[in-house]
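Explain my protein.
***
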Amino acid sequence: MADLVIITPHLKTHLGGCGKYSCQLAATIISKYSNHRSIVIEVNFDDGITADSLVACVQDDLGFNDPIFGFSLLISSSAADYLFISRELKRRGYKTFIAGAEIDYVYLPEVGHRTHEHRFQGNTTEFDFLFEGPAEHIIPVLDDIQDCKEYAGRPGVTTVRDSEVIRGNQPQYCIEKLVEVDWGNLLILGEDLNKREIQSGVVLAQRGCPYGSQSKLLAIDPPIGIDLPPYEIQTKGCSFCHYGGPLTIPLEHVLSQIRNIPLSNGRRNFYLSHQNPFPLLPKLIEQAEDIGTIHLMSLPGFIRNHADRVRSTIIQAQKKRIILDLSCIGFESFTPNVLRNLNKNTSVEQNMREIEIMIDLEDNFRNFNITPGCHGLIVPTPWHTSDDLAKEFALLKENDRLKRTYGGAIFCRQLRITHTGGLSNWIRFVEENAGVNYKRNSFGQIEWHTDAAETWPFEYSRKNKTDVVVTDD
């Protein structure tokens, strides 16, 4: 039997106690609609997990004798471990694949990789295939693998055969299947294999981003220090993002998901996956029962433009003893030129006004919280001058409202450019016309920042070069 083990990394952030929605949903669907068993294992790579120890626990503890390993929720700090473990599993004869939304940059070779040796050559030997799409469409692939049949060209599957990329059609999502998650199918592997307790579930109210449906022709500036004309790209939402427009989940399915969240002290706590949640909240709060805390994400702008509606929603939640926790809002920058190149559709002044309103709400309502340090901050970018960096971090460390929003020690990330992402053609234009070759890392990101790091006016984390750390000295 081709049983599926879904591997996902352990997160050491405010999301650490949260369920792994996409992984657990996939395991639920596979177990329910096929004869294949499936389980999700959260791996703490700091505990020295190896391919042998992973196989041993899967076989001895779970009884999965001939498992297939799917790797999901790739984060930069775990990417090297993913590649190593998958390579070792394949060497031992196991099938492996990588799965997730917009994760093709990890698997596929970069355009022009044959004529430009420095470009990303892909990870088609580290993984057998890439899977993107609804989990029910992996079931025929598992059947094919079990029966030793060819699965290339199946819906949602991308493979490389004899240097030729074969991409199956992208199937549509079935909303009814997006709501039936078994929150008990998550294990954690450290020194031992144990069941992972879920402190908060995830409720999918929207897939994708509403801003991602807004197309725009945007002229991107060259990196600082490079004399080139702007390069036009067709953006959909933020220039660095390529999630696309939203699929909205009907309210009855949202409520069904809430009822499925495990109770914790008699209440249901969850992250609401919706980029613009406040218009939805009044009906949700009115009709749902036993809600404890709702963790919210939001695009910048709604709180600023509809402060009265947000205030009335908080009052409505207060009457039912519901806590609204603003866990993530994507401001991304407090430098004007950077905001323009990121196509954030907002200004520094508007961001500051929104933060002012957020803090006023937190000060006046005990059931409205701002999670510090978890809001979007992309620093540095190719468009930051040294003066920009110094000013931005001075603002972040000295402005009282920003200190409350981002916390005492500021954690941010430099702009990540993948070879299939929205800025990929722009960065290749820069390379070809400025005579530079940026390094590619082992999982398909273009490291434009490597040389620039020596001149940044703050501490740069060498252990994990995707993170920038500013200490609160």
Remarks:
- The chain is about 30% helix and 20% strand.
- The first helix runs from residue 21 to 33.
